[in-house]
Amino acid sequence: MRAHLDTQGLACPLPVLLAQKHLRAMAVGDRLTVTATDPLARIDLALFCTKEGHGLISVREEHGVLFFEIEKRH
Fold first, then answer.
1. What is the DSSP letter of 21?
2. CATH assignment, 2-71
3. Which of 21, 24, 49, 69 could crosslink 54 through cysteines, CB 3.0-4.6 Å?
4. Of 3, 5, 12, 18, which residue is the catalytic one?
5. Average pLDDT for consecutive 10-residue bins of the chain (74 residues)?
6. Is 12 tagged catalytic?
């Protein structure tokens, strides 16, 4: 399953907290795409994935919007 979480306009730690909430409801192997405009999300979401053991599959930026693809691993 793939899901999308739009956190544009929200400041950290909200993108991480909302991603965590969404991932809890997902099955192992599902992917969550998070969009964010807070530059600190690049650091915070990467650290969150490392700490929680989820896979940060990709990070890209388009016109000031960050796109994170996260795979739930446990």
1. H
2. 3.30.110.40
3. 49
4. 12
5. 97 96 97 97 97 98 97 95
6. yes
